[in-house]
């Protein structure tokens, strides 16, 4: 079982930056592929970014490409989502998710592909 805890959300003005963290407790996150998703009120959960277990491969939704960066520090058992040039449409609850990767360099884009989820952290971007 992997327990995930997100942090770093908050209120920021448009154009600002935030860094979200996803930390795992009770178990190492090192062999897991990790993704970030978000869900705005009245909308479905959508993919934001994903990273392979080693950090060697990343993938982004078109809506955040060039503005968001996903990274991981396996020594700290943490995955990050650096968000820059934030827009009001980025407002949502952000979730991190993890799944076993068997040390393959895959990344995964669909919520159903992930086994473990955090509780989410609210990001609000004001205009």
Structural write-up:
The chain has 127 residues and is an all-beta fold. The chain has strands spanning 3-7, 10-13, 18-25, 32-39, 46-51, 58-60, 68-73, 78-83, 92-100, 116-117, 121-126. The strands form 2 sheets. Strands 2, 4, 5, 6, 9, 10 and 11 form a 7-stranded mixed beta sheet that branches.
Question: Could you outline the blueprint of secondary structure elements for this entry?
Answer:
Elements: E1 3-7, E2 10-13, E3 18-25, E4 32-39, E5 46-51, E6 58-60, E7 68-73, E8 78-83, E9 92-100, E10 116-117, E11 121-126
Parallel strand pairs: 2-11
Antiparallel strand pairs: 1-3, 3-8, 4-5, 4-9, 5-6, 7-8, 9-10, 9-11
From the helix content, strand content and strand pairing, which structural class follows? mainly beta
Rg, rounded, reads 13 Å
Total helical segments = 0
Quote the average pLDDT.
95
Shape: globular
Taking pLDDT < 50 over at least 5 consecutive residues as the criterion, the unreliable ranges are: none
Number of strands: 11
Instruction: State the order of secondary-structure elements, H for helix, E for strand.
Output: EEEEEEEEEEE
Major sheet description? 7 strands, mixed
What is the percentage of strand-forming residues? over 45%
Helical content stands at under 10%
User: How far is it from the N-terminal to the C-terminal residue, by CA?
Assistant: 40 Å
């Amino acid at each position: 079982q992997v327990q995930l805890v997100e942090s770093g959300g908050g209120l920021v003005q448009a154009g600002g930056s935030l860094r979200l963290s996803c930390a795992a407790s009770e178990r190492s996150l090192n062999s897991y592929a990790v993704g970030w998703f978000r869900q705005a009120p009245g909308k479905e959960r959508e993919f934001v970014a994903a990273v392979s277990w080693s950090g060697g491969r990343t993938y982004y939704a078109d809506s955040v490409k060039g503005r968001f960066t996903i990274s991981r520090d396996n020594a700290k058992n943490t995955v990050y989502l650096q968000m820059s040039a934030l827009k009001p449409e980025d407002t949502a609850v952000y979730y991190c998710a993890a799944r076993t990767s068997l040390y393959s360099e895959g990344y995964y884009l669909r919520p159903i592909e992930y086994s473990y989820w955090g509780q989410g952290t609210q990001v609000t971007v004001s205009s």
